[in-house]
Amino acid sequence: MHKEFLMGNAAIARGAIAAGLNLISGYPGTPSTEVLETTAKVNDGSVYVEWSVNEKAALELGAGAAYSGARSMVTMKQVGLNVASDPLMSLAYIGVKGGMVIMVADDPGPISSQTEQDTRHFASFSKLPLLRPFISTGSLRYDTGRFRVFREVQYSRAFPSYNKSLSRLRFN
Questions:
Q1: Strands 48-51, 23-26: parallel, antiparallel or unpaired by DSSP?
Q2: Which of 45, 68, 87, 149 has its CA 20 to 30 A from that of 157?
Q3: Comparing 147 with 157, which gets the higher pLDDT?
Q4: For residues 106 and 119, what is the distance between their CA atoms, to the nearest angstrom?
Q5: In angstroms, what CA-CA distances link 2 with 14, 23, 116, 171?
Q6: Which residues make Cβ contacts (< 8 Å) with residue 91, sequence separation at least 6?
Q7: At residue 95, what are phi and psi to the nearest 5 degrees?
Q8: Is the overall model pTM greater than 0.85, yes or no?
Q9: Which tens digit of pLDDT belongs to each residue from 91-102?
Q10: Residue 76 gets which letter from DSSP?
């Protein structure tokens, strides 16, 4: 077994790959950028990785993959969820066949964003499940658990909160 020190976003990417991720799409924006970048870096070629032209296009790509039975993840920062809100609300009543995780990185403060926004309200408004790791060490296990939740209830979308603390995780 080897050990690595990972930030929470890298752990989320590793957990998604371990859970059988087929596609990841996103729009670059700190603090969410590292999830897609890490997935691209450690990808063995089995995961389709795409930077999209905007958050709406990224969400629609992920939804299309999930409609066809694939496991997808979409990444964006909190203001990007405003851009993607139209397809998000449609997902709430259409559903998906595969698993889909929407990883939204909030930026309390704001440190690297134009505005401060709490995306947990979107989960409540859209009636979608909200799953959020409270510590980075839980991010890897948490991400594999999101797709397991989908298998059990046939319904998976998630909005984890952002946590930028250092983690020590083990990989077999």
A1: parallel
A2: 45
A3: 147
A4: 7
A5: 14, 26, 38, 6
A6: 59, 63, 100, 126, 128, 157
A7: 80, 180
A8: no
A9: 888 888 888 888
A10: E
